[in-house]
Amino acid sequence: MAALARAGFDDYVVYENDGTWTFAGGSLATVTLDATHVRVRSVVESDTEWSGSPGAALRAALDSLPVPGWRAYGSVHFGFSGLLPGLGLRGVAAPAGDLVRLLVPRTEVTIAGGEVTIRGEEQDRVREILREPMTGAAPRPRPIDVRVDGAGYRERVAQAIKEIRQGQYQKVILSRSVRIPFAADLVATYEVGRRGNTPARSFLMRLGGAEAAGFSPEVIVTVSPDGAVATQPLAGTRAFGRGADEDAAARTDLESNPKEIFEHAVSVRTAQEELRRVCRPESVRVGDFMGVKERGSVQHLASLVCGDLAEGRTAWDALEAVFPAVTASGIPKRESLDAIARMDEARRLYSGAVLAASHDGSLDAALVLRAVYQEAGVTWLRAGAGIVADSTPEREFEETCEKLSSVAPFVVPA
């Protein structure tokens, strides 16, 4: 995947999903969506004003492509939430710029179980790249201090705790950015970082001048061709990777801590409510309640919420129902989004999604966390923590440091 990413494709997405790795390079078609228009750039081009459901607008644009059997890969910014019915904030301007960018690739390479499948153009070139031996010295990351801006973040957390105790909302995720003082080689960062992480999904991409590499701990939603839907909220966090005894003690604390259990339980309840909007209500169920998932430098409480799409509903409806992820926004969502708009800087891709979608109705969307971002000469990390009534500013700041440590040790200078 790294070799293909270095091969000179203008735009590309690498997506790892449960042992299957896909490289999507070059643009056979691009679909973008902003607050008012959905645009298609392909053999046939269009610029269409949309209203109502942004997911329906995206589905119609993709279905209009003169590309049989299309598959699309790309990104959804956190600001997409402001376009969703019921989540738009009064007095807040619609987010500017493209909020969704999807690539239907000219060249698609899938590697699963040692089998390589190549679709589209440049197949001979791809085979040559894959035959090249891996040579050269291992990339050398540069240390990054993740403990900056502690006072500013603690002040915002304290304000959120005050608002929660006043009854304005139950939970909110507040985040902070860490500026990296050098340009990063994101391909090398992805190579090194993937070896040091155990993600639910991983991704590496360059789309429209923006780059990102990440090791997503959580799936926002998956939809199979037959309409089976799943989301897996992760809420409740402790450090991991500090030695067997410390990890075991942290896990015991995680599984018995009232604040962490409450934070997780309300997230699972919200996920159930969201799936019932688009699934047959009787099909919505919870599996593996409050299991523990180890994700790089942290461990989380995790539950799987599943259902079956109701008649007439699509994968894009399911994405709208659960977006933004409850574990990256808060409860209730509208009130927590208001708090995020007041207390967080613009998130852009952070806590949005990287996704793969197909003509067969399937969709797989990973939550964009534990990532490094690079755009317009600026490189940064970002992490957040879930604030509830029993939170403390010091502990939530420490949680952001633990999460940042899933990526910070692996950033390789350009």
TrEMBL record:
<dbReference type="InterPro" id="IPR015890">
    <property type="entry name" value="Chorismate_C"/>
</dbReference>
<dbReference type="InterPro" id="IPR019999">
    <property type="entry name" value="Anth_synth_I-like"/>
</dbReference>
<feature type="domain" description="Chorismate-utilising enzyme C-terminal">
    <location>
        <begin position="151"/>
        <end position="403"/>
    </location>
</feature>
<keyword id="KW-0456">Lyase</keyword>
<dbReference type="GO" id="GO:0008909">
    <property type="term" value="F:isochorismate synthase activity"/>
</dbReference>
<keyword id="KW-0479">Metal-binding</keyword>
<protein>
    <submittedName>
        <fullName>Salicylate synthase</fullName>
    </submittedName>
</protein>
<dbReference type="GO" id="GO:0046872">
    <property type="term" value="F:metal ion binding"/>
</dbReference>
<dbReference type="InterPro" id="IPR019996">
    <property type="entry name" value="Salicylate_synthase"/>
</dbReference>
<dbReference type="GO" id="GO:0000162">
    <property type="term" value="P:L-tryptophan biosynthetic process"/>
</dbReference>
<dbReference type="GO" id="GO:0016833">
    <property type="term" value="F:oxo-acid-lyase activity"/>
</dbReference>
<keyword id="KW-0460">Magnesium</keyword>
<dbReference type="Pfam" id="PF00425">
    <property type="entry name" value="Chorismate_bind"/>
</dbReference>
<dbReference type="InterPro" id="IPR005801">
    <property type="entry name" value="ADC_synthase"/>
</dbReference>
